[in-house]
Here is the input.
Amino acid sequence: MSLLILMALNCFCVMFLNKKDQTVAVVNCFGVWSAFSLMYWGGSGVSRESLSELFCVDIYSSSMVSLSLWICGISILVSSAMLNLRGVFNSFWILVTLLCFMLVQCFMVNTLAMFYVLFESTLVPMVSIIGIWGGQVDRIPSIQYMAAYTVGGSFPLLLIFMSMELNGGSSFMWFISAKTDYSWMFWTGCFLGFLVKLPSFPFHTWLPKAHVQAPVGGSVILAGILLKLGGYGITRVMMIFSYTLESFGIYAMSLSLYGSVYGALMCLRQSDVKKLIAYSSVSHMAFAIIGLFSCSEVGLVGAYIMLVSHGFISPGLFVLCGINSELVHSRKIKAMNDGVRAVPSLGLFWLVMIMANLGVPPCPVIISEVLTVVCVVATFPWAFILLVFYFILSGAYSFSLYSQLTRTKNKPKTSVLFNEVTLKDMKALYFLFYPLAEVLFKWDLWAVV
Here is the structure.
């Protein structure tokens, strides 16, 4: 509760500053809020610290709160350097702050009904950001696609929560009696909305459309934190209803295995960098789904390492894509090559972020992939064949992307918008590296002891 009060007071004070100082003040506020949220981090395990009658946290919710604050601050920082947002930037940071406020509450509430309301409410600021600052005329169909998938997929979840309120009198998370005789349809209703949000194969088709139309700041938030709502929701429902490995989980794991290979194949076919990053997110979220539905401690730790690591790596790739597209006015890989040649330092950043996305040691993604492979192969030995295909294809599209972005041409350099990329443009990338190092050294934080 104190974090929410601090956020509200800071936003009220920022409103009285002039427009030029508001950007710096808001970014600094997000830094302060992120540091303040670390107070809620406890040791490993699921012991809870009650904050009030409405909010309570554990290591899973506190890590998501810190991730939300950090990523929303990065979004405002990188968007302040983009030309297509400078005219109405105040409206942008207000929407992002409102979205962050909803996300923090969503990760801290202790009633399922309030969680559902906030879960769906986060769609409104995101749709507004895409609708107002979306780059192309197709942004309205992409908004409709995104809203239809998200609301339609979570509608069965609403019916379940309404039934709990009407029959049980409460949807308080920790007063629900655990049972083990729930039907297959019940688990489908509980998990479908979260699988769409992650997204899981075959419910992923809205994600590339939304990323292509969203501005850079919107893509940073969408990939960095909104997708993680699905993983967090699955974790909460599993804990509340004492889920064990059942037929639904086996189907979800099987589809995710195929989805990881499918996402890597689609990455190989893309010429649009934003679509490529979006499909790589589909592949990586498949590992989080496999880890969660394995119902093992190893899988849970691997899933949260992937969720948090991807929350910093994917925004970094979108930031680089935004900087490059501003230089050459295109998201095509061949056109972005001219931007990297004009600003050679971008080549180094592309190398680091692609390696982190691929999971090259010592990047924390490799820890998640190893733990996930261990838990899924122990359950389904045949899954190792699909995982081998995924790792081969993942290396292929990563190497292809970097080689196309940095290859040398004989023709003269193409003129670009800027002669150089300023420090302000690169600050967002610098601020994404430190949390990755923290995840690497504290990867066992989500272990249950």
